[in-house]
């Protein structure tokens, strides 16, 4: 893969109330939930505490890149959720610079993950009845 840097990436799933953080293996294959942070309006030196904690995690894991899920509409447009996530990612980028942020279209992440599991002979899983909870981050690579 061209431009693919080795190292542990963080995947960030920004919600209205919470921010889910997953850690990805250096090969970009498997993402594992790391922590769920409350979205916070409280600040430390003008930086929301959840963004401060993300910056700490980026430094702790020596992350070469942060992947943020972008909830675009099915038609590919930016609805209110995508606008909110872009603003969050912009603020995070200011705090963790020079570490880059990559926004990833998360519209079809469940479909793609199910197909990949099926191709590998894994039954149940993401959409199967054997799983009681679906993780949002399955891979740290786009596509």
Low-confidence stretches: 126-135
Major sheet: arrangement of strands: 3-2-1-6-7
Examine the secondary-structure arrangement and name the CATH architecture of the domain at 9-105: 2-Layer Sandwich
Number of helices: 3
CATH topology of the domain at 9-105: Nucleotidyltransferase, domain 5
Mean pLDDT: 80
Can you write the helix and strand succession as a string? EEEEEHEHEH
First-residue to last-residue Cα separation:
13 Å
Q: How many beta-strand elements?
A: 7
Q: What percent strand?
A: 15-25%
* Major sheet summary line: 5 strands, mixed
Helical content class: 25-40%
CATH class category label of the domain at 9-105: Alpha Beta
Q: Which structural class matches the secondary elements?
A: alpha/beta
Rg to the nearest angstrom?
A: 15 Å
Determine the CATH superfamily of the domain at 9-105: YqgF/RNase H-like domain
Shape descriptor = globular
